[in-house]
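Continuing the series of single-chain predictions for the mutant panel. This is the parent chain; the variants come on the following pages.
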Amino acid sequence: MDDEYNVTYIILSGHVEVQKYRYLYFLIMFTVYILIICCNFTIVCLIWIHRNLHEPMYIFIAALLINSVLFSTNIYPKLLIDFLSEKQIISYSACLFQFFLFYSLGGSEFLLLSAMAYDRYVSICKPLQYPTIMRKTTVGIFLGLAWLVPACQIAVPAILSADMKLCSLFLNGIVCNNSIYNLYCVSSTTRSIFGVVALTNIALFPLLFILFTYTRILIISYRSCKTVRKKAAQTCLPHLLVLFSFSCLCAYDVIIVRLGSEFKKTARLIMTLQVILYHPLFNPIIYGLKMKEISKHLKRLFIRQQY
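Parent structure:
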């Protein structure tokens, strides 16, 4: 549908009975969004305030939580507007931008988890060299690459999609993800190649690196004393839980896109909500409960507020 300014609008057809339950949807999603912001930034502020948390591991955790808030902010405001609107539509340019941020920030999560895995490997397997290897400059480079590399990789297929001819204006979803590829009249080989390269560089390679790193940590910890094994378990388990959670949600996204037409509309909506609801809240809960130093500061914060 083109208006007088010749702007192409995409109809988001993945909503289920939004006219009937719009206020319930809005209330739930608004509450979750506020919880995501509060939970994530509470831990980020604790890491910022307390000097004993100014270590690479906690800096990477703070970056991961900020990334979760950015990921949610890319989705929730538009979703909340859609719930209160008569028509759930988005301009094609805005859809491409949401697509870009969706996968760019998703790739950043994998690279940040890779940096955290490397940090734990050096800390546990090469403790004497840790201060030399994990300097502030190194941490800064890792953080910069974690956000810059996925942005550059995803920008290419997003830009290539800008001039593609659309044969359908009905997007089978509530957010702009890979489902937009189903709107095009013809597939682009160049865009597909860049998409595969991006997926390999920002998801597959980091995942393999993380698994290799933690395998090495497990082997070395098993051969070491009880203290080393305990340290490895305390610091690595939360990262592995987050990795497992995020990998499952990425698998959800692929299943939704590739097999979306075979799922009922309600099932497809529930799977999409898993991607945008679950993980941004899972991260702060895991790190708040499982990371000893963060948990200690959280207990002090809440006990102080009670008095």
